[in-house]
Amino acid sequence: ESGVSSSGLYLYGATCLALHGDVQLDTITSMGYRAPSPRVWRIATTAGNSIMTIKLDPGQVELGADVVYIDKEDDSDSDEDQPMNQRQNRSRLANMEDPDDPESKPDDRIYMLASSKGVQAVTALVDVLDCLPPDSDEWEELLASAVVAVAADTSKALDELQPSDWEMLPLTDINEEFGSLKVGNPHLVGGGFDLRPGHRMKLMLRDSQGMKGDLQDALLSYKRKDLAALVSGESQMPPAFGMLLLSDVSRGATIYSDGNVEPRLAQSYIPVPTSGLFGGVEH
């Protein structure tokens, strides 16, 4: 049986591509994640594959004392103007006023702890929530698309970290009692990743905005390198003659209003004949 339906759609089978001769394959990788908040954290304490407490990365301290604003007793008008999901989830964290200093403010206390002793790991989630538009998705929808990006190389400065240095770990659970984040692949023993104090982390989202923006950045980076090699005379290969776009099913019409967003974007930077396929899984 051929596997082709009456509409011309192939339901099963195989597609083969044969390349012969001196062929060079360049890869452009786009994972499709974006970081709503500019803050990067250091893991302070862990328990297995759970992140218990975090601290601001030293390179992030200058961002100021607005790490997160939490005060369960605050009934001000400004708080009433906030979306319900933001107010509800801020109240999940403890009031961190300094009892020894009646003049202290909750955000000052949090800033001090975040830059020295550390705060509950769930603070990173609230920080991301603060960076989203007021009419953004509900808290549950945010968690459904959130991943924890962890950089294990502690020898590099923050600005030296490359996209390949970050390991994307699924956020599998939130412990509201301890404010911890559980990460890793639940199908692997120990979560599949060795979390250690000192590792950098940040919260990432995967949505249409992140997917399109990340792919655009990757294409632009490739184009710049290609043009730089051409101008310097280092490029010994002829121009590209074709492009294959390999994507998982979540990056098609299921998340974009149009099914050809990414092929058109890729061709706008690399105008060559394009083909490709979807895969059912990412790993």
Automatic annotation (TrEMBL):
Residues 83-92 have a biased composition (Polar residues). Residues 73-108 are annotated as: Disordered. Residues 73-82 have a biased composition (Acidic residues). GO terms for biological process: positive regulation of proteasomal ubiquitin-dependent protein catabolic process; protein polyubiquitination. This is FIST domain-containing protein. It comes from Haematococcus lacustris (Green alga).
